[in-house]
Amino acid sequence: MESNKKRIYLSSPHMTGNEQKYIDLSFKTNWIAPLGPNVDRFEEDICQYVGVNDALAVSSGTAALHLALRLLDVKAGDKVFCSTLTFIASVNPILYQQAEPVFIDSEFDTWNMSPDALKRAFMDAEKEGNLPKAVIVVHLYGQNAKMDEIVEICNFYQVPIIEDAAESLGSTYKGRKSGTIGKFGVFSFNGNKIITTSGGGMLVSDDKTAIARGRFLAAQARDNKPYYQHSELGYNYRMSNILAGIGIAQLSVIEERVKQKQAIYQRYIRGLSDIKEIVLMPEYKGTRHNRWLTTFYIDSEQPLFTPFELIQELERENIEARQVWKPMHLQPLLNEYRFYSHSEHLNVAETLFERGICLPSGTNMTEDEQSRVIQIIQSFVSRRREQHFIANF
Ligand SMILES: *Cc1c(COP(=O)(O)O)cnc(C)c1O
């Protein structure tokens, strides 16, 4: 019977209705290519919305990260510092360049890169005479990392920052849009992100020369000749004009989407406030959190339940929830690389992975559907409490 209930997703695409207009336009004008007026306009709209000089629309957020590393001349054997608590896409481009990732732990205020761990990683790298070529800072689930502290450390060592803002479009840090503080910012428009082109990404920077070179690399690095001549390694990374049309319509409602996501988060706060073990991801002072996904962790030495058990319970009711990202330094692919924990005693990313859960946060989820999610969590937790009480009686 349960399986008859309509599935509630973690965060599914939410169309505005205007996307079709731009798609139709590309068909009418026959701009069915990885360039064209929709691509130009989407890039301009992003520049205006986040406040940067230049933007390059590409086929994915991963492609944008890869280009950023190329533009910073990251090569085989170079080191790149990277947040450990993230999706694998933050790291794969480092491996594409045969560079060496060094993983930096999170801290509890933001769940993002720990400035303490970053500082220790830099001190060691300096001692070894091998500073990183770049630092990739991830803004997890829409929350900005502590950029003031991170920028100060990176400026001291003169190492550029790439902001992986794939999850944080629409968030702000002290009045500035997420993704515009480092040398490069990267956004993703994958199907589950706050806005989508079904698949796509954007590289942004104030450095127009760098973006122009990114444009060249993203289009197979063709030399300026009347024939096809190539002197450098390039990629086929440009965004399709059809998909950019979807992006234009999606971006026009980003502010509305952030408000809807924040309202979803507020309803979870109210609905779960009496379960004291649940600690929702905070919003760091001076920032706006886009609340792409509402997440919490179970703050208890003897937890009543594991994230996996709650996720299974929700799955039985046809509701999609997910564990917090498994840290990169724990991945079988990556466990040979170095990792710096927040402190000697605190390994924050591992704790958040073991105890953290992402709740359904789609902007097309109805209030009734969200109430169903809350009610299932409530009854699951009270059953666990009773069992616990009886067991300890
Ligand atoms: C989604 C995501 C990416 C990659 O974006 P794609 O467009 O799927 O390639 C990179 N980093 C993080 C943190 C993400 O969530």
UniProtKB/TrEMBL annotation:
Q: Which GO terms describe its biological process?
A: polysaccharide biosynthetic process
Q: Which SUPFAM superfamilies match?
A: PLP-dependent transferases
Q: Give residues where N6-(pyridoxal phosphate)lysine occurs.
A: K193
Identify its protein family.
Answer: Belongs to the DegT/DnrJ/EryC1 family.
Originating species: Bacillus salipaludis
Q: Which cofactor does it need?
A: pyridoxal 5'-phosphate
GO molecular-function annotation terms? pyridoxal phosphate binding; transaminase activity
The active site of this protein is located at K193 (proton acceptor)
Show the Gene3D superfamilies listed in the entry.
Answer: Aspartate Aminotransferase, domain 1, Type I PLP-dependent aspartate aminotransferase-like (Major domain)
Q: Which UniProt keywords apply?
A: Aminotransferase, Pyridoxal phosphate, Transferase
Query: What is the official name of this protein in its record?
Result: Aminotransferase class I/II-fold pyridoxal phosphate-dependent enzyme
